[in-house]
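Progress note, sequence design subtask.
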C-alpha cells in the first residue's frame, strides 16, 4: 500500500477533479448536466483524457456511456466493472455520481500500469438522474440490455426523443444492443457519496450497501378548465392548480403514515402559468420509494386513486404516466464481505445500510453481482451545491478500493467466477 501522504495527494486530486467537472455545465453559474447535453460532450472529453492517461482505452457507446477499458495481464481475461454516473440534477453538487467515476480512474492510476488477472472497465454512465426524460438509468439500462423502444421514444419537454438526442450527439441508436455489458463481466462495484446523514451520525467514513430501495416514478396530469381569475366564481371553477395542491399534501400525508416510506412531488408545471388565469392543466411528478416493493406499490396505487378522487370531486379529469417501476435490489453478499474486509484493512469500521437513493448498481445487479461503497456525506446534504466530502474519507475510499482489487485478484471464489464467465 502506498504511503499515506501519497494517498492523501490522490484524494486531493480526486476532489479537485470533481470540482473541475462541477464547472462543466449547461447552466451558467450552477452545475447541471443532463443526458447528452453539450456540457456532457465536454465532460466526456475531460474524463476521457484522464482515463486514457491512466492507461485505459476510451470509447463512447451508443447510449452515450463513457467507457475506459484497462486490460488484464493476459488477453481474453474477464473484466470487473467500476463506475457511476456523469449526469447531474439541476443545481447539483460536485460529487453525486461523478465521485464514483473519478475515484475509479484514481484506482487505475494507483495501479500505475500494473495488470491484474482481470481487466477493469471504468464506466461513466450517461444518465442516472431521470431529469431530462423523467425516466432514470438510461445509461445503465443499455448495459443491462433494457433500453427498449418505449424508452427510446420518450420525449423531453422540447419534444426531443431519447433516440433523437442520441443521434444529435453523433451516436447511432441502432447500435444500442452493442452497449450491453460484455458477457465476460464479473461484477460491478460503485463508489458513491451516501447522500444522507447516517454515516456521519455514526462517525464512520465508509458504508457497505446491502440493498437499494425500489422506486416508482410517474407523472400525473390534472385537466381542468382555464378561465379568467377575476370573473370566474370559485364554485364555478375547474381549477387544476387547487386540485394539484390538495393532492400534493395527500402525498405527504400518505408517506408520513408508513415507516421508511418517502414520496415526493418535486416538479410542477401549470398551463398557462399566468397569475390572472385559473390553471387549466397541471402536470406533477411523483417519486415513491421504500425498501419493500409491496409497500411502495400499494402507496403508489393509493395515491393514484386519491388523485382520481380529487379530480372527480372538483370536476377535472386525471391521467397518469408511469415512468419507472424499479424493484428494490440486494447487493451481492460475497462483494459485501470483500468490501468490508478491504475497508477493515484500510483501518475503517464500516456500517451496512440500505440506500434510499437510486444507483446504477441497482440496474446492473439484475445481470451481474453488484456492490457499493458509500462515503460519509458531511451534513447529509446532496442534490445541492453544498454537497461535499472530506479528503480523509476519499483517501480511505481509495485505500479500500485498492485493497479490494488486490483481494479480488487473489480470491479463490472470485477466480471461480472467472472460470464460469
Ligand atoms: C438519484 O439520485 C435518485 O435517487 O433520485
Ligand atoms: Mn443523484
Ligand atoms: Mn447518484
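Output:
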Amino acid at each position: 500500500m502506498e504511503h499515506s501522504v501519497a494517498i492523501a495527494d490522490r484524494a486531493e486530486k480526486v476532489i479537485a477533479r470533481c470540482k473541475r467537472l462541477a464547472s462543466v455545465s449547461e447552466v451558467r453559474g450552477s452545475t447541471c448536466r443532463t443526458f447528452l447535453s453539450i456540457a456532457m460532450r465536454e465532460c466526456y472529453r475531460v474524463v476521457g483524457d484522464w482515463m486514457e492517461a491512466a492507461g485505459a482505452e476510451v470509447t463512447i457507446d451508443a447510449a452515450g456511456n463513457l467507457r475506459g477499458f484497462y486490460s488484464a495481464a493476459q488477453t481474453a481475461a474477464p473484466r470487473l466493472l467500476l463506475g457511476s454516473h456523469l449526469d447531474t440534477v439541476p443545481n447539483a453538487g460536485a460529487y453525486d455520481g461523478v465521485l464514483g467515476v473519478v475515484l475509479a480512474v484514481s484506482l487505475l492510476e494507483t495501479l500505475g500500469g500494473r495488470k491484474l488477472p482481470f481487466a477493469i472497465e471504468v464506466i461513466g454512465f450517461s444518465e442516472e438522474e431521470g431529469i431530462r426524460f423523467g425516466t432514470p438509468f438510461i445509461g445503465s439500462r443499455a448495459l443491462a440490455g433494457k433500453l427498449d423502444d418505449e424508452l427510446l421514444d420518450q420525449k423531453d419537454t422540447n419534444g426531443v426523443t431519447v433516440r433523437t438526442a442520441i443521434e444529435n450527439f453523433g451516436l447511432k441508436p441502432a447500435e444500442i444492443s452493442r452497449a450491453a455489458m460484455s458477457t465476460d463481466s464479473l461484477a460491478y462495484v460503485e463508489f458513491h457519496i451516501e447522500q444522507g446523514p447516517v454515516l456521519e451520525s455514526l462517525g464512520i467514513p465508509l458504508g457497505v450497501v446491502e440493498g437499494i430501495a425500489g422506486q416508482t416514478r410517474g407523472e400525473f396530469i390534472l385537466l381542468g378548465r382555464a378561465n379568467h381569475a377575476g370573473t370566474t366564481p370559485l364554485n364555478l371553477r375547474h381549477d387544476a392548480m387547487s386540485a394539484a395542491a390538495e393532492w400534493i399534501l395527500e402525498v405527504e400525508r400518505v408517506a408520513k403514515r408508513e415507516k421508511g416510506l418517502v414520496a415526493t412531488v418535486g416538479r410542477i408545471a401549470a398551463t398557462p402559468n399566468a397569475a390572472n388565469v385559473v390553471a387549466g392543466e397541471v402536470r406533477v411528478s411523483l417519486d415513491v420509494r421504500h425498501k419493500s416493493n409491496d409497500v411502495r406499490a400499494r402507496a403508489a396505487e393509493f395515491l393514484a386513486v386519491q388523485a382520481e378522487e380529487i379530480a372527480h370531486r372538483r370536476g377535472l379529469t386525471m391521467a397518469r404516466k408511469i415512468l419507472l417501476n424499479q424493484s428494490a435490489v440486494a447487493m451481492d453478499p460475497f462483494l459485501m464481505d470483500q468490501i468490508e474486509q478491504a475497508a477493515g484493512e484500510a483501518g475503517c469500521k464500516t456500517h451496512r445500510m440500505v440506500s434510499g437513493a437510486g444507483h446504477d448498481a441497482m440496474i446492473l445487479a439484475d445481470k451481474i453481482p453488484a456492490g457499493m461503497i458509500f462515503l460519509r456525506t458531511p451534513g447529509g446534504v446532496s442534490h445541492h451545491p453544498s454537497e461535499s466530502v472530506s479528503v480523509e474519507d476519499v483517501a480511505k475510499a481509495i485505500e479500500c478500493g485498492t485493497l479490494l482489487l488486490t483481494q479480488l485478484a487473489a480470491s479463490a471464489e472470485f477466480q471461480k467466477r472467472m472460470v464460469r464467465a
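Residues 293-313 form the longest helix (21 residues). Work on this subtask will continue into the next period as scheduled.
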